[in-house]
Amino acid sequence: MISVRDLRVSYGGTVVAHVPEFDLATGQVLGIAGESGSGKSQTALALMGLTRYSGGVVTGSMKLGDVDLSTLSSKQWRAVRGRQIAMILQSPRAALNPTISLGTLFGRTLKLHGVARAERHARMEQALAEVMLHPQILSRYPHEVSGGQAQRFAIALVAALRVDVLIADEPTSALDVTVQSEVIDVLRNLRESHGTAIVFISHDLAVISELADQVMVMRGGEVVEQGTTEQILREPAEQYTRDLLAAVPVIGRTR
Amino acid sequence: MSGPVPDLAPLATSETEGVPGRRRSWMWPGWGAAKRVPLLVIGLVLSALIIIAGVLAPWITPYPEDAGAVVHPTQALLSPSAAHWFGTDLVGRDIFTRVVFGARVSLGIVVIVLVVSAVVGLSVGLAAGFFGGWLDAVLMRVTDIFLAFPALLLSIALAAVLSPSALHAALAIAFTWWPWYARLARGQAASIRRQGYSDAARILGASRTRQLVRHVLPNASTPVFVQMSLDAAGIILTAATLSYLGLGAQDPTPEWGLMVANGQPLATSAWWVITFPGLAILVTAVAFNFVGDGLQSVFDPKRGQR
Q1: Do A145 and B8 count as a contact with CB atoms less than 8 A apart?
Q2: Among the ranges A244-253, B12-21, B277-286, which has the highest mean pLDDT value?
Q3: A171 in helix, strand or coil?
Q4: For labelling alongside A225, which of A175, B119, B129, B168 has CA 20 to 30 A away?
Q5: Residue B299 and residue B285: Cα distance in Å, rounded?
Q6: At what angle do helices B38-55 and B95-131 cross, to 10 degrees?
Q7: In angstroms, how far is CA A9 from the centroid of its own chain?
Q8: Mean predicted confidence (pLDDT) in B145-158
Q9: CA separation (Å) from B140 to B114, B134, B211?
């Protein structure tokens, strides 16, 4: 589905993220773990083609199916974003324009991506059911919904757009623990019912391990360890990964 | 779909409980909020009366023809009476009629100034704040040049160059008014451009134009609209100033500032000629100020009492 080779993101000549390679198949989840400044969010921006808007440069290849994303123009990128790749953000409520209702936002987004008027309503209702939201939420404004509802709404948008790849940049970090697990469940559903490939970025290996098939650990812009979730959790090769794992609370274990 | 049976989470939050089905719009916090600011209610009522009086002027005034170039030499400078509530002026025209018609002129000037400066100011400010870079630098330096001159002096100079008329006075005021809106809109646009929802629009495939029009414009313009309501009073005063100096509306236009200027030599012998137009300026300016100030309190809980 998506394969990346020797991806480098740089600002003014300084490389802030370097990903040698990864391949992600339909319905698979790649977890990217790392501390602040490890380059994981820059990797996400590069995958969305948004690096250029913050003044950065991307080299290397990113293939989505047969298309090499790194050669796309701004206009071509626009046709990919929201149709094949989408992203959800850390603070879900800040990601919603306070001046328009969720229903208006939903309708306009579907219209932008060429969904016929007659089909829009059914798509919205189906997508909202998938994320366990009542259709009534469409009449609400962003200040009238909770953070968890807003994040599930964002995922509903992604489900309705039927994108191939979803990039989730710290989607649960701003939410409390019970709401976190709701969002994880909803992402799991999305992957199972639509086969969406997910790049799940978090500083929290415990959250990543709930969802990911493969894990990539980043530090200081470099990938320090990469493998299946099993491998990484059972036999971490790097001290840094062991430190991250040690930070994961496990019930019944005393340190 | 796997997972537990969809449990449709209750939507009620503390904010919406108790007002079932009530639509709360971002534009208008509702009458409840307005009523807590009594000055806003007073201002709104007064402003509404002034606007209605201006609109209905030909039907509610006793001598509508006196708004134009007519002369009644036999009735010059009559003091206030049942026939002429506010008295008559030097050429015998009913001052009440002219004051009511004057609302049309003043409100017209306010509308022209606000529309012209909002369109120019928002365009310049949004472009600068949204696109940033060299465009921002160029547009903001131009704005700074305008702001560097004392606004009233610049308006007077411009009005003096143009032939004096109410329209030209309005354009002269707008010429110095827009840079404030440009500055305000630029700051808003620059901060909103970095908001999550602005990024989210890009992520969902929106173009730059759509991002600007649908997301930045509506959010950046609210403070500008509030500022506009605060400025209406200042525009009335500035327009009256220009007319008073002979640079705005010309006789026989029933403009309040002009009426005060014409009545000034008579101040000691016929007090009513300057008093009523002067009061009209005062009441209108106060009413608009109440509205602007009240709106700001309603929209910004940090400022003013709630």
Answers
A1: no
A2: B277-286
A3: coil
A4: A175
A5: 21
A6: 120
A7: 18
A8: 92
A9: 20, 10, 22
What residues are paired with A32 via a beta bridge? A201, A216
The tokens describing A227, both together, are 């493998």
CB contact under 8 A, B2 and A189: yes
Mean pLDDT, chain A, integer: 88
Which residues are bridge partners to A88 per DSSP?
A168
Amino acid found at B301: P
* Interface contact B199-A157, CB threshold 8 A: no
The pLDDT score that the predictor gives to residue A254 is 56
Number of H helices, E strands in chain B: 12, 0
Closest CA to A236 of A212, A215, A222: A215
Can you tell me the distance from the alpha carbon of B306 to that of B290, in angstroms, rounded to the nearest whole number?
15
> What is the b/e burial string over B129-164, where b = at least 16 CB atoms within 10 angstroms of the residue's CB?
bbbeeeebeebbeebeebbeeebeebbbebbeeeeb
Give the integer Cα–Cα distance in Å for B78 and B94: 9
Sheet holding A2-11, edge to edge: A67-68, A57-64, A2-11, A14-24, A222-228, A214-219, A29-33, A197-202, A165-169, A85-88
Task: Supply the pLDDT for residue A43.
Answer: 92
**Best interface-test mutation with A: which of B14, B197, B216, B221 has the largest number of A CBs within 10 A?**
B197
How far is B210 from B148, CA to CA, in rounded Å? Answer: 34
CB-nearest partner of A89 from B11, B16, B199: B199
The pLDDT value given to residue B134: 93
Query: Look-up: residue for tokens 């002979």?
Result: B246
Q: Is-contact A229 A31, C-beta < 8 A?
A: yes
**CB environment B249-279: b (16+ within 10 A), e (fewer):** beebbbbbbbbbbbbeeeeeebebbbbbbbe
Topology of domain B32-299 in CATH is MetI-like fold (1.10.3720)
> What is the set of domains in chain A, with CATH numbers?
2-246 (3.40.50.300)
For A:94-113, CB contacts with B below 8 A are 94-100, 108-109, 112-113
Asked if B17 is an interface residue toward chain A (Cβ–Cβ < 8 A), one would say no
The Cα–Cα gap between B270 and A174 comes to 72
- Report how far residue A185's alpha carbon sits from residue A208's, in angstroms, rounded to the nearest whole number: 12
B12: pLDDT strictly greater than 50: no
Q: How close is the nearest chain A Cα to the Cα of B7, in Å?
A: 6
Alpha carbon of B44 to those of A179, B100, B287: distances in Å? 45, 18, 7
pLDDT score of A6 more than 90:
yes
The answer to whether B121 touches B109, Cβ cutoff 8 Å, is no
Between CA A92 and CA B141 the distance in angstroms is 37
Instruction: Return the structure tokens found at A26.
Output: 């339909």
Which amino acid appears at position B250 of this protein?
Answer: Q
